[in-house]
Structure formats: structure tokens, C-alpha cells
Amino acid sequence: MYASIVLVGGEESVNTLRRNNRALHYVREAFGHLKAIGALHEAVAFVKDACQLLGMTFSEGSDAIDSYGVVTIGKTEAISFKDTVELVKGAKDFTTAFSYAMSQLKNYQRELDGLASMVAY
Fold first, then answer.
1. Which stretches of the chain are DSSP H helices?
2. Is-contact 3 33, C-beta < 8 A?
3. Rounded to whole angstroms, how far apart are CA atoms 30 and 68?
4. Helix, strand, coil percentages in the chain from 3-state DSSP, rounded to 5
5. Could you tell me whether strands 70-73 and 36-40 are parallel, antiparallel, or unpaired per DSSP bridges?
6. Beta partners for residue 66, in sequence order
7. Domains in the chain, ordered, with CATH?
8. Less Cβ around it within 10 Å: N or C end of the chain?
């Protein structure tokens, strides 16, 4: 009943997600159902661990990367949740890539390349 998910990061928030198996399941389920997934900052590592697939790429720097509808940006100047929200609203690279991934409703390339069935949920 959702079109996409976004994890904005924050060390404390991501540590809470890591302790919650339902959060892990939720990300994996979104991936398996071909939904767009966005991750910023520390949440990039969480999504990468949740998917654990060879061939996918994740941002480690300030460039937004779209890999099979999983849009990530690893480092920015944002230091708080409010700053992160403002950054995402103004950052055309991440916003454009994620908006496009969401507009597709599903990322069928994941299924065509056999990735959707490789993540247990």
C-alpha cells in the first residue's frame, strides 16, 4: 500500500533500525516488490546490508546514485534532520533520480535481472 520508502539517516535512527528486524524486513519487502527506495547518509549502509546483492552500487560520496530504483546519497553537508529535509528539497540530483524511480511505480529491471527474488523477505 505504498509506492516508495525513504530512509534519511542519522546515526541514532539507523542504529534503532538495525535493532528492529521488522525494519529490515520492510526494506527487503519494498525491494522484492520492486518499489523505489531512497537512502541518505548512514541509512545507505543499512539499505546496502538489507539488500546484500552483488552488482548494485551505492553512493559513498556526495553524488546521487540510482541502482535498480534504489537511490542513495552518502555524504552531504546536512547535520540535522531539518537540514537533511531542506537539502533533499533543493538537491536536484537526488530528488530528480528518486522522483523518477517513484514515477515508474515499480523497477522491473530488478525482476528481469533476477535481483528481486534474491532478497529474502
1. 11-18, 21-32, 43-51, 81-90, 92-103, 108-112
2. no
3. 12
4. 50, 15, 40
5. parallel
6. 71
7. 4-113 (3.40.50.880)
8. N
Tell me the whole-structure pTM to 2 decimals.
0.77
Ramachandran sector of residue 9 (left: φ over 0; alpha: ψ -120 to 50; beta: rest): left
Q: What is d(CA 49, CA 44) in angstroms, rounded to the nearest whole number?
A: 9
How large is the average pLDDT for residues 16-23? 92
Q: How far apart are CA 85 and CA 32, in angstroms?
A: 27
3: its cell numbers: 509506492
User: Cell numbers 539507523 label which residue?
Assistant: 14
Q: Which amino acid is at 70?
A: V
Residue 85 CA to residue 78 CA, distance in Å, equals 9
What are the Cα distances from residue 101, in Å, to 30, 35, 52, 77, 91?
A: 13, 8, 20, 24, 16
| pLDDT at 68 > cutoff 70 | yes
Other beta carbons within 10 Å of 8 = 18
